[in-house]
UniProtKB/TrEMBL annotation:
<dbReference type="InterPro" id="IPR042081">
    <property type="entry name" value="RNA_2'-PTrans_C"/>
</dbReference>
<keyword id="KW-0808">Transferase</keyword>
<dbReference type="Pfam" id="PF01885">
    <property type="entry name" value="PTS_2-RNA"/>
</dbReference>
<dbReference type="InterPro" id="IPR002745">
    <property type="entry name" value="Ptrans_KptA/Tpt1"/>
</dbReference>
<comment type="similarity">
    <text>Belongs to the KptA/TPT1 family.</text>
</comment>
<dbReference type="GO" id="GO:0003950">
    <property type="term" value="F:NAD+ poly-ADP-ribosyltransferase activity"/>
</dbReference>
<dbReference type="GO" id="GO:0000215">
    <property type="term" value="F:tRNA 2'-phosphotransferase activity"/>
</dbReference>
<dbReference type="GO" id="GO:0006388">
    <property type="term" value="P:tRNA splicing, via endonucleolytic cleavage and ligation"/>
</dbReference>
<dbReference type="InterPro" id="IPR042080">
    <property type="entry name" value="RNA_2'-PTrans_N"/>
</dbReference>
<dbReference type="InterPro" id="IPR022928">
    <property type="entry name" value="RNA_2'-PTrans_KptA"/>
</dbReference>
<comment type="function">
    <text>Removes the 2'-phosphate from RNA via an intermediate in which the phosphate is ADP-ribosylated by NAD followed by a presumed transesterification to release the RNA and generate ADP-ribose 1''-2''-cyclic phosphate (APPR&gt;P). May function as an ADP-ribosylase.</text>
</comment>
<protein>
    <recommendedName>
        <fullName>Probable RNA 2'-phosphotransferase</fullName>
        <ecNumber>2.7.1.-</ecNumber>
    </recommendedName>
</protein>
<keyword id="KW-0520">NAD</keyword>
Length: 209
């Protein structure tokens, strides 16, 4: 559930995490999930299919998105879209004036590198299945269903992300400092996720737990 605290803004749950105020109702769980799926698809995977024009950096006109959204969901107001973005703990989206985009997770081709800060962590992490590990150690990591490789900022975060897809993940440690010194762009999109176009095998090793 999404609610709004007049002092601290939109939040998810029953009480504002900053002041314990219950706030004002904005969106229930079912509608939050439905709206989230639509926005994810529209901004990451099939903007043209829903009638959106996406620019090279992934931005779309928020007014146009809202008009399309309201045709599908009569309850799909601009405030509810904004609440979805601002209350999202995973930082999936961002709004800049009259434009909105996904920060990561694209399957459509976008160029995010110029807009985000360069990674400063010496090591990053990436979880894979046991079956994939040997192949990636030999050939490097390239995106499969997305246009960027999504790296994690810590071992534990990589473990949690990989455990969604495989029961016993192998966690790679990426020598990000060396890769960046050699000209590979690696950029930060939020506290958990860092993006790269690819990670060659030379910078990959297995991290033991």
């Amino acid at each position: 559930m999404i609610r709004k605290c007049e002092q601290h803004g939109y939040f998810r749950g029953e009480q504002c995490p900053d002041c314990a105020n219950e706030g004002r109702y904005v969106l229930d769980d079912e509608r939050e999930e439905r709206l989230g799926r639509f926005v994810s698809g529209a901004l990451r995977h099939f903007p043209e299919d829903v009638g959106l024009e996406i620019d090279p950096q992934g931005w779309v006109d928020m007014d146009i998105l809202c008009k399309i959204m309201k045709k599908r969901y009569k309850w799909g107001t601009t405030e509810r879209l904004i609440s979805l973005v601002e209350s999202d703990r995973k930082g999936r989206y961002e709004i800049d004036g009259s434009f909105i985009r996904a920060r990561y997770g694209h399957s459509v081709e976008v160029d995010l590198v110029p807009d985000y800060p360069e990674n400063e962590l010496p090591y990053l992490y990436y979880g894979v299945s046991q079956e994939e590990a040997d192949m990636l150690l030999e050939n490097g990591i390239i995106p499969v269903r997305q246009c960027y490789v999504h790296l994690s900022t810590s071992f534990d975060k990589a473990m949690r992300a990989a455990s969604i897809h495989t029961e016993n993940p192998v966690i790679f440690e990426i020598d990000a400092e060396a890769a960046q010194e050699d000209g590979i762009d690696i950029v930060v999109v939020n506290d958990d996720i860092v993006l790269a176009k690819n990670i060659p095998a030379d910078y990959i090793s297995i991290r033991e737990s």
